[in-house]
Amino acid sequence: MTVSVPDGLPPLLRLSGVNTFYGEIHILSDVDLEVAEGELVCLLGGNASGKSTTLKTILGIVRARTGRVEFAGEDVTERSTSYRIGRGMAIVPENRRLFAPMTVLENLEMGGYLRPVGELREALERVYSLFPLLHERRSQLAGTLSGGEQQMVAMGRALMSNPKLMLMDEPSMGLAPILVERSFEIISQVHEAGIAVLVVEQNANVSLSIADRGYVLQTGRIVLADEAQKLLQDENLRKAYLGR
């Protein structure tokens, strides 16, 4: 099940009939998913639904046994993770996974390791323009920041590579409710800057409130796909994920 990208927007990422296995265990079954350039899409699902495997398949950490992964108009199904990152994917991992003993600036610089040295200053200025707080805290150790501040660093680190697509893995995990809202405000800022974002989440209500479109994954299959506002009104989704 899929819903096409909006008219006039070329697909940046496309999964077509993807089947992914761990050994003989079938994890993803005929998954179709698209993200257009500049679009914010959320992939929803509970534990063991296949969300993490979908991300790993997009990044090439796990290879699809059948089906096709296309990125920026190229078939990257058999390409390495490093190749895909070099082509413009970036990941903000679950629980942020910063280099805690390093400063904010050093963490950001790690995100720009693929860029020429001459471009790092420009990349830093772009990140600081989105997140002025990171400039103020650039000399602070990343491990001493709050959860919300660490989320900014993780997103800033991903932006340092000048990505076409940012992949967000459970951005609300481990955050207090008030920080969850702030985290999704930050994601909206990145989206408004013109970067395509795929958010993988369990928190359907907050995710759909900022997304353009959404997909729902259950036991490795896409069971719902629609515009975000329509999914928020979907009776099955409300019962399963929104508790009403």
Write out key terms for the chains shown.
244 residues; alpha/beta; six-stranded mixed β-sheet; four-stranded antiparallel β-sheet; 10 strands; 36% helix; globular
Structural class: alpha/beta
Strand order of the largest sheet: 6-7-8-3-9-10
The beta-strand count equals 10
**Model regions low in confidence, pLDDT < 50 over at least 5 residues:** none
Topology:
Layout lengths: L10 E12 L2 E12 L3 E5 L6 H9 L6 E6 L2 E2 L5 H7 L1 E4 L11 H8 L8 H11 L1 H5 L10 H13 L5 E5 L7 H16 L3 E6 L2 H7 L2 E6 L2 E7 H5 L2 H8 L2
Helix pairs in contact: 3-6, 6-7
Report on this structure:
36% of the residues lie in helices and 27% in strands. It contains 10 helices and 10 strands. The chain is globular. The two termini are 24 Å apart.
Task: Write a brief caption for the model.
The protein has 244 residues and is α/β, with parallel strands linked by helices. Helix content is 36%, strand content 27%. Strand 7 (165-169), helix 7 and strand 8 form a beta-alpha-beta unit.
